[in-house]
Amino acid sequence: MTFIYPVDSNKAHPLPLSPEYKSSIKRAPNKPLIPMRHTLSELTGPVYGHETVREGDNDLTTQHSGEPIGERIIVHGHVLDEDGRGVPNSLVEIWQANSCGRYVHVRDQHPAPLDPNFTGAGRTQSDAAGYYRFVTIKPGAYPWGNHHNAWRPAHIHLSVFGHSFVTRLVTQMYFPADPLFPFDPIFNSVPDEKARARMVSSFDLENTQPEWALCYRFNIVLRGKNATPMENH
Amino acid sequence: MQDNVKDNGITPSQTVGPFFKYGLTPTGDYAWNDAFTNSTLTPDVTGDRVRIEGRVFDGDGVAVPDCMLEIWQADAQGRFADPQDKRALPNASFRGFARCGTDKDGNYAFDTVKPGVVPDPDGKPQAPHVLLAVFGRGMLRHLYTRIYFSDEAGNAADPVLALVPADRRATLIATREAGKAVYRLDLRLQGDDETVFFDV
């Protein structure tokens, strides 16, 4: 199948400069991006080896000698293209704060405890249908220095590849009905309300495991449409 | 069942943030392994081995210590390690992808081979180039640019460089250091000599 990547789809993304998010002010280009046609360089992308994802890399609760503190959750869904077709064999990497909202990163020094049983990094590859699944701990909200009393809504960072180098996506998955949404300049950097809603996972009772873990569903839609849409419909 | 994708449209980008290192570029500093390194080199790779290095600066000219850069390129024969490239088989284990976090002084470096010539959609040759994606705290979506090589005569006829105003092309061309297989290219995210970024 041949894919095309209409540039119009990028309108869902935040603009580079979003002044409410202070760090964007000196790191956003001033000059307009230069349009160009996609060449073979843009239309191809990396394929990963067997060593990229190891057995168990998608379970962030079993990487240490004990179990991490916090609310165990399942996060699953499909990596999809713009036609709703599953994107197979796509690498999905995640990283997140622990249940207290503290990152293991040395630069996070806010007064919340680290958890010796939680690093907060995982990865998996979507299957032939585009399906992926992680087991982790629900991350906590945490304060940051953007403005007075600034708190990030709880989120899991995701990095996804897809069919080509132009489908590359780094985003954040949020949890339903977080009261911090209206105050978060990163969440609100996405101008369209419907597009913002696509970053919020859904509570999934059907796949919640009794006595064990709540489940959230999060579908990730990457760029890419069938170049000849009639052939499959 | 409730689903977060009810309408058409892609999942929007969000910043990689300041804390990606332990997940994406741990390089031995955290209890997690690296999926990728800053090298594309494999035992079977053919072609000229080169290092591409430089620094990343913000709009105040301050070094950016928390960027993540990713490269994607063809092998020395101009073939991509992707089955979507139907032309020929690349070096068997060469993948053409690498990832590097900037250090405290904004430095990055990639070890790779100089890519070969890749055709544009009209079949015209593109000068050897590496695709570069730039991620960072403060960057709500990553930026795309290209790295060309200063000692390539093909740059003059490259169809993508031709889209760039002549006085900005130098921001895309890594300069070969005298007598070494090292090319230098600094990235400037903002300002008068801002790097050219593409809308792809």
Automatic annotation (TrEMBL), chain A:
- One family from Pfam that matches here is PCDO_beta_N
Domain Intradiol ring-cleavage dioxygenases: from-to ranges:
75-103
PROSITE patterns xrefs: INTRADIOL_DIOXYGENAS
EC main class here is oxidoreductase
**One record GO biological process:** 3,4-dihydroxybenzoate catabolic process
Q: Which controlled-vocabulary keywords does the entry list?
A: Dioxygenase, Oxidoreductase
The EC designation for this entry is: 1.13.11.3
The terms under GO molecular function for this entry are:
ferric iron binding; protocatechuate 3,4-dioxygenase activity
UniProt keyword annotation of Transmembrane helix present: no
CDD domains associated with the record: 3_4-PCD_beta
Q: Which SUPFAM superfamilies match?
A: Aromatic compound dioxygenase
Give the matching Gene3D superfamilies.
Aromatic compound dioxygenase
Stated family = Belongs to the intradiol ring-cleavage dioxygenase family.
NCBIfam families assigned: protocat_beta (TIGR02422)
> What name is this protein filed under?
Protocatechuate 3,4-dioxygenase subunit beta
Question: Gene for this protein?
Answer: pcaH
UniProtKB/TrEMBL annotation, chain B:
Q: Which UniProt keywords apply?
A: Dioxygenase, Oxidoreductase
DNA repair: present as a keyword of the record? no
InterPro entries in the record: Intradiol_dOase_C (IPR000627), Intradiol_dOase_core (IPR015889), Intradiol_RC_Dioxygenase (IPR050770), Protocat_dOase_a (IPR012786)
Report the EC number(s), separated by commas if there are several: 1.13.11.3
**GO MF annotations in UniProt:** ferric iron binding; protocatechuate 3,4-dioxygenase activity
Intradiol ring-cleavage dioxygenases domain boundaries: 52-80
Tell me which PROSITE patterns the record gives: INTRADIOL_DIOXYGENAS
EC top class named in words:
oxidoreductase
Enumerate the Pfam families for this protein: Dioxygenase_C
- Provide the family line: Belongs to the intradiol ring-cleavage dioxygenase family.
Q: Which NCBIfam families match?
A: protocat_alph
Q: What is this protein called?
A: Protocatechuate 3,4-dioxygenase subunit alpha
Organism of this sequence: Bradyrhizobium niftali
